[in-house]
Amino acid sequence: MKYSEIMVRYGELSTKGKNRKDFIRQLGKNVRQSLQEFPNLEIKAQHDRLHVTLNGESSSAVIERLSGVFGIENLSPSVKVAKDIETIKETAAAMVKEQFKTGTTFKINTRRQDHDFEFDTNQLNDMLGGYVLEHVPGIEVKMKKPDITLRVEIRLNGVYLTSEIIPGAGGLPVGTGGRAVMMLSGGIDSPVASYLAMKRGVKLDMVHFFSPPYTSEQALAKAEELTGKIATFGGNIQFIQVPFRKIQEEIKEKVPEGYLMTIQRRMMLRITAAIAESRHTKGIFTGEALGQVASQTLESMMAINDVTTLPVLRPLVSMDKEEIIRIAEKIGTYDLSILPFEDCCTIFTPPAPKTRPALDKSRNFEKLIDVDGLVKEAVEGIKIVDVKPNEKFLNQQSDVFAELL
Ligand code: ATP
Ligand code: MG
């Protein structure tokens, strides 16, 4: 079926009363950004729906993009035909036929915006229903919960037929929930946490700590490429890379081994908070889940959280690893996350970090290093890259094996 338009229905928006206008404007903007690469599209956001006119662009490619945009409840490809009853009948039958399997039931649901059209909705339902019954052998009419509901809309500028409802990503349009900083590693969890933060409408900036030469160019490229994947759900993302080697070396030299990890994490969070505040963002997201590793006990979170009063939000906090992996696979980050390039944390993790670090000890051991000077230097050394949806950063596959050998 050659579709002419995709009809996009809004999700939770409809319950948001006076914010509705802003939500629709933001969703329209996000949809335009995610469809940048299709130059012929026309996108019109209306109060109850958004219409994407294809003008010859591929409906399946556009649908794939749209189904990742937060704030969309569902979408339906539709065919626009002339206001000519014979054409409407033939198109209706062709659409039903395309989805027909033995035992399929259907009904016609007509809406009429153009009240001057020669037939009313009842007449149209009867005529089209009759035509489909005659031309699709074996099909039956069913009024309650049919397999196919063929919607026919008689608008002023033409007739639109649609029969499929494709689920959207749900959630809220990115940008309507404020702005926050995400601590992004190259692992499995933080990309999933990013996705979930964005699903609630939050616009993210990524902060990534790296430690050359202990960590490779490819480890950095992996985090950037993950950012590109995540950008497909809400548009360009600023990727902020923070040099962390000097801090890690200082800590390793001066802090007792049991507290290496806790102090490193406190420094990371402190720097992230400084970056968040300088950009006037209102919170920090991480990929932590309770009980996964030593840094992720309640005691440890308390000892680390001590360095900032910004809210630290952890969308994965009570998820099982399997649940997280399932989402990572769904959003297309899993295969990247499992590439074997170590990030800066793995490399400086001591064999036996304290799982229940004490807050007073953490504070005391930190006095052994120049906290303020190191934070300042790291913040001054950041580099910001604007990452586009699906932008690539990694070298070819062969390098993966080179590192593995
Ligand atoms: P992930 O799979 O996200 O790496 P993890 O289960 O490996 O998480 P940790 O390595 O302890 O757990 O990291 C916990 C969280 O700390 C990460 O989810 C991320 O938010 C943050 N983090 C870890 N390493 C970095 C890094 N190099 N840069 C920025 N944030 C990081
Ligand atoms: Mg990790």
TrEMBL record:
The source's domain of life comes to Bacteria
This entry's Enzyme Commission designation comes to 2.8.1.4
Q: Which GO terms describe its cellular component?
A: cytosol
State where it is primarily located. cytoplasm
GO annotation terms (biological process) = thiamine biosynthetic process; thiamine diphosphate biosynthetic process; thiazole biosynthetic process; tRNA 4-thiouridine biosynthesis
List the pathway annotation: Cofactor biosynthesis; thiamine diphosphate biosynthesis
Supply the PROSITE patterns for this chain: THUMP (PS51165)
Q: Where in the numbering of this chain does the THUMP domain appear? A: 60-165
The molecular function GO annotations come to: ATP binding; CCA tRNA nucleotidyltransferase activity; tRNA binding; tRNA-uracil-4 sulfurtransferase activity
Entry binding sites for ATP: 183-184, 208-209, 265, 287, 296
Q: What is the reaction catalyzed?
A: [ThiI sulfur-carrier protein]-S-sulfanyl-L-cysteine + a uridine in tRNA + 2 reduced [2Fe-2S]-[ferredoxin] + ATP + H(+) = [ThiI sulfur-carrier protein]-L-cysteine + a 4-thiouridine in tRNA + 2 oxidized [2Fe-2S]-[ferredoxin] + AMP + diphosphate; [ThiS sulfur-carrier protein]-C-terminal Gly-Gly-AMP + S-sulfanyl-L-cysteinyl-[cysteine desulfurase] + AH2 = [ThiS sulfur-carrier protein]-C-terminal-Gly-aminoethanethioate + L-cysteinyl-[cysteine desulfurase] + A + AMP + 2 H(+)
Where in the cell does this protein reside?
A: Cytoplasm
Q: Say if the entry is tagged with keyword ATP-binding.
A: yes
**Which keywords does this chain's UniProt record carry?**
ATP-binding, Cytoplasm, Nucleotide-binding, RNA-binding, Thiamine biosynthesis, Transferase, tRNA-binding
Q: Which family does it belong to?
A: Belongs to the ThiI family.
Q: State its role.
A: Catalyzes the ATP-dependent transfer of a sulfur to tRNA to produce 4-thiouridine in position 8 of tRNAs, which functions as a near-UV photosensor. Also catalyzes the transfer of sulfur to the sulfur carrier protein ThiS, forming ThiS-thiocarboxylate. This is a step in the synthesis of thiazole, in the thiamine biosynthesis pathway. The sulfur is donated as persulfide by IscS.
- PANTHER family xref list: TRNA SULFURTRANSFERASE
- Protein name as catalogued: Probable tRNA sulfurtransferase
Q: Which species is the source of this protein?
A: Secundilactobacillus malefermentans
* Gene name in the database record: thiI
